[in-house]
Amino acid sequence: MILGILGGGQLGMLLAQAANKIGIETFVYTDSDDSPAINYSQKSLIQSYDDLETLGRFIKECDVITFEFENIPFDTLNYILKDKPVFPSPHINQIIQDRLLEKKFINNLSIKTTDFIDLNKDTKISEEIFPGMLKTRRMGYDGKGQSVVNSKDDLVNIDMNIPYILEKKINLLKEFSIIITRYQDGKVFTYEPIENVHKEQILHTSKIPASITNEMMSTAQKQCEIMANSLNYVGTMCVEYFVDHNEVIYVNEIAPRVHNSGHLTIESYDCSQFESHIRAVCDLPKKEPQKIKNAKMLNIIGEDIKKYRNKSTKENYFFYDYEKKSVKSGRKMGHLTNIT
Ligand code: ADP
Ligand code: MG
Asked: Looking at ligand 1, which residue's alpha carbon is closest to its atom 21?
């Protein structure tokens, strides 16, 4: 069985490592030569995602194809789907790649998101939306394409040729995420909620257990099941949540892939989010993830990686260096998990 992975970042790397552990070969297709996943994959190709000839070679050699980031062009996924199964299904990306369609999908299931307006269409901007977060509808990650707006005046210089949404800014008490894996027959397994802290809109730390109420946990887990079923999702996905000062929970966004907050499942569960994803997309025997330890994870961003390299790690600490060739500020370079 050869699993094709589109995208070559650290999520692809951790997927390839998990695949190797259970005897599945991987074939990575990436558009960048600075791709950590290549180092752990049996095969790889570096070419743009719209190069049909190279894609053809990739498709021929893979049995099933998945992706490690959601902004793979829809046309690429659809092209592959003509010949080989792609999980999760490309139509899911079409919804989730666009923050407006994503929020509408969630709200249609009677699940709460932050209030928002379609900025390019709604001419009436009510004062209640401020303070707000302006976000590009497409292609945002790690806070890119986002800014805080406090009044209509802050909107005057915006390039209206790009589609935006304007979200109400939540007075955050906490953030947490839920990782859920859905198999091809519809069976779902949900990991326990993970508490997350962001710094400058980039994930900084994650930990289990999350200090949220049991009611929040069970409501969120049920919502995730409803969303995964409604999408007919296959594989691992992550749902990011906000908790405000009135202890109301809101879905922030869905990631149709394995997620940074789930890195700690490698050490804290007997079946990580990565292994679960591979089992689901490759239709392997199911394994219900069982927690073995609590854990904390720290993301290592930019130059900070230099402080961790060439040092021995203490007992119960697990250091991952993605070995990216170029160190850039704001770039995820590695992570450190501590089981507790
Ligand atoms: P990305 O796709 O870049 O991860 P998110 O929409 O998840 O973008 O935003 C990144 C982080 O920015 C969130 O985890 C949160 O900390 C902060 N943030 C985003 N939107 C809001 C909001 N409406 N209210 C408060 N904080 C927000
Ligand atoms: Mg996010």
From this structure: 169
Summarize pLDDT for 214-228 with one digit per residue, the tens: 999 999 999 999 999
Ligand 1 mean position, distance from CA 201 (Å): 6
Q: The tokens 């099933």 sit on which residue? A: 64
Is there an atom of ligand 1 within 6 Å of 276 CB? Answer: no
The model's pTM is 0.97
What pLDDT score does 303 carry?
97
pLDDT in tens, 292-322: 999 999 999 999 999 999 999 899 999 999 9
Q: Which domains does the chain have, with CATH numbers?
A: 2-86 (3.40.50.20), 115-168 (3.30.1490.20), 172-339 (3.30.470.20)
Average pLDDT on 200-214 reads 97
Ligand 1 contact, 145 CB (< 6 A): no
Q: What is the pLDDT averaged over residues 66-88? A: 95
CA of 62 to the centre of ligand 2 (A): 30
CA of 78 relative to ligand 1 center, distance in Å: 29
